[in-house]
Amino acid sequence: MSNNIESHLVEDRVFKPSKEFSKQARISSMAEYRRIWKESVANPGKFWAGEASELAWQTKWKKPLEWKAPDAKWFVGGKLNVSESCLDRHATGARRNKAAIIFEGEPGDKRVLTYAQLHREVCKFANVLTAQGVKSKDRVIIYMPMIPEAAIAMLACARLGAVHSVIFGGFSAESILDRLDDCGAKHVITADGGWRRGKVVPLKDNVDQALKKNKTVESVIVYKRTGQKVAMKKGRDHWWHELEEGVSGKHKAKAFDSEHPLFILYTSGSTGKPKGILHTSGGYLTGAYTTCKYVFDMRDDDVYWCTADVGWITGHTYIVYGPLAMGVTQVMYEGAPNFPDFGRFWQMVEEYGVSIFYTAPTAIRAFIKAGDQFPEKYDLSSLRLLGSVGEPINPEAWMWYHNKIGGGRCPIVDTWWQTETGAIMITPLPGATPLKPGTATLPFFGVDAAILDETGRECKANEGGRLVIRQPWPSMTRTIYRDKARFKKTYWSDYDGMYTAGDGARRDKQGNFWIVGRLDDVLNVSGHRLGTAEVESALVGHKAVAEAAVVGRPDDLKGQAVVAFVTLKGGIEGSPELLGELRNHVGTVIGAIAKPDDIHFAPALPKTRSGKIMRRLLKELVGTGNVTGNTTTLEDFGVLANLKKSIGRKK
Ligand code: PRX
């Protein structure tokens, strides 16, 4: 398997949507796509207002857009309650008894929630939160397993105008603490634990540890999922089921301003501190809904399954808000794809008749490695559309997904977007776009994407440059929570009035976008963003470490692996024990996904004369075993020679 961009450059296989697929699709030809796209970028306010009007508003907006870069206001003067579009309108209408969530826990427990039941659960929990003192704009941390209650908690917050911030269950106590402190949350919603590969993830214990050092949190609500004993602090901690006793399942949704904050989601940037990406209500929901409608072409009889975790943006937009706003039936799964074996997903596709399946290239590569015998055991004929997200999909993985999972008949939508963009931005439309393995193809409606060089000139075909978005779109992040200056600097300072994504890309002659990867010090490990600075600061926090530099190395399964170079404090010797200790230390400080794959002890790190670590050289060294790039600013050449020895490859 090669996960290498070179293979992109020679890719010339083209897969056109079948006539049958196109015939029933909302957008069925390239001519139609081009026409709507042109109109939508010529007048984004008009296009998005048309889509937004399909959602439930209590007060219609006066103006679709007010824009003064980088500040966007969408659907100005409009008022809505996001949860009404996702629940009330289905629960009180024709979809009342339609399955909203078909849940399967890792141990095999099953549960179906209809739209009416989900609505009732959200209303009940909104009443619980109100009784706990949760108010509009309060920040609420949600640290849950992948169970329906995670979605219920998010929607209940939305119903009250409270701002949820979901933390992925794989993050550590210290990561929880950082986020709690950054957003000043008063409330935490968690569970005793969740199931992952047959083991319990101790969610409540992690929250307890984080709270030892936190001063803002007043209440913790704990859902009983795994049943192991957990400590409950009197006055602060409450069982979800106890709080719900006798509580009404009715709740009237109050309307909030279209620009009312909906959630904060933390993501890695190029400094050590994660960024609290803030999304607001009307615009975000419009982006989520519209992309579900056109990109997944969701229908009332579809069974949709997105395998992401609600702890990431994909789970927010394509498990909770988008699919529910569409009123689709979806599958939700708690655990690991390989539990009890690599057939789990395919067994579930067969059992529930999944028709739309959305996953990440890293999962696909793991399936390829596990072998074809797993998908071959199951009937996957219910599938009609496949999706990919999180990182560039290498053409080999694309072909396997297409043939082995999609039976050669399902279009694959390779969707490029980010936590910051809120919704899919570059993507094929499945009934129209000719697909080439490895490219996310063309911009979605209303998205004016381009590739620019450093001077701001638009790159020619096949010339690499920086990916930018030249016009506002409704689901764009409005700010980094409590850090407007960082927001401006990170996304809006490269070119006047344009959003810089931080990705390198090129367009081919047909205009398809090929995303190469991050241009900043952010790694993409198994489709998850990880700042090298975060891992470095975790390592330097260990008592034995003097200095650390972290870079990515191409990896067949994870996309990128984490490689750390570490210098130790005087008198301390590197040893296999210390190596293990450092890996675990990073796991404790950030979470298991950040554990370095390789740690090299080094007597010194390559630096410029002004003392900056030259990560570029380290990256080249771990990628190719050699350094050919410019080394003229290197202070001490001996350092590089030593490192080459320490990684076991010589020139
Ligand atoms: O580098 C791009 C990559 O993932 C980054 C965004 O990460 P995150 O905010 O965690 O969101 C992931 C899920 C939307 C992007 O800057 N990326 C995401 N999707 C693709 C991709 N790279 C190439 N192709 C994609 N389809």
Automatic annotation (TrEMBL):
Limits of the Acetyl-coenzyme A synthetase N-terminal domain: 33-86
Assigned EC number: 6.2.1.1
N6-acetyllysine modifications at: 612
Positions of the AMP-dependent synthetase/ligase domain: 89-473
InterPro entries in alphabetical order: Ac_CoA_lig, ACAS_N, AMP-bd_C, AMP-bd_C_sf, AMP-binding_CS, AMP-dep_synth/lig_dom, ANL_N_sf
Domain AMP-binding enzyme C-terminal: 534-612
Entry binding sites for CoA: 196-199, 314, 338, 526
UniProt keywords, alphabetically: Acetylation, ATP-binding, Ligase, Magnesium, Metal-binding, Nucleotide-binding
Post-translational modification: Acetylated. Deacetylation by the SIR2-homolog deacetylase activates the enzyme.
Reactions catalysed according to its record: acetate + ATP + CoA = acetyl-CoA + AMP + diphosphate
One Pfam family it belongs to: ACAS_N
Binding sites annotated in the UniProt record for ATP: 390-392, 414-419, 503, 518, 529
Cofactor(s) needed for function: Mg(2+)
TM annotation in the entry: none
Tagged with keyword Nucleotide-binding: yes
Binding positions (Mg(2+)): 540, 542, 545
CDD domains: ACS
Family (UniProt): Belongs to the ATP-dependent AMP-binding enzyme family.
PANTHER family the UniProt entry points to: ACETYL-COENZYME A SYNTHETASE, ACETYL-COENZYME A SYNTHETASE 1
Function recorded in the entry: Catalyzes the conversion of acetate into acetyl-CoA (AcCoA), an essential intermediate at the junction of anabolic and catabolic pathways. AcsA undergoes a two-step reaction. In the first half reaction, AcsA combines acetate with ATP to form acetyl-adenylate (AcAMP) intermediate. In the second half reaction, it can then transfer the acetyl group from AcAMP to the sulfhydryl group of CoA, forming the product AcCoA.
Protein name per UniProt: Acetyl-coenzyme A synthetase
